[in-house]
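Lab notebook, bench 4. The sequencing result for the construct came back, and we need a structural model before the next group meeting so we can plan mutations. Quick request posted to the team channel:

Model the 3D structure of this chain.
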Amino acid sequence: MITNPKFVVLYVSDQQTVLDFCTRKLGFEVRTDASYGDGQRWIEVSVPSAETYLVLAEGDPRVRDLVLQRLGELSHVWFDCDDLDATFDELTARGVRFPVEPRAAPWDPEGRTRWAQFADPEGTLYGLTERGA
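Done. Here's the predicted structure in token form:
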């Protein structure tokens, strides 16, 4: 029986830059940082309490280009937080850029869900919602 998503792979151009962003700006923990193969690194990061990790995969630029061509800059990775406004203020103070500031979600006609969107140094976009919304 499947119990939990293990990890989500993000294709990045510069693993170290995105790793620094995840740990220094977002407060993520490094779960694995191992060298393998011909000078490659396998990097897993996560929110301290999470069971699902993000893998920062740096590989063939053609793969990243294809992903960007098909999906655009949106990573399709969303995070929960307990307080959207407080998290927005905290991350903004750390220098995280928010192309979409906290607002009502257009997909929730009852107006209970609020969301925001932030970007990493490579311009990849991530969604952020309040827990339980």
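The chain has two domains: 1-72, 73-133.
Will bring this to the meeting.
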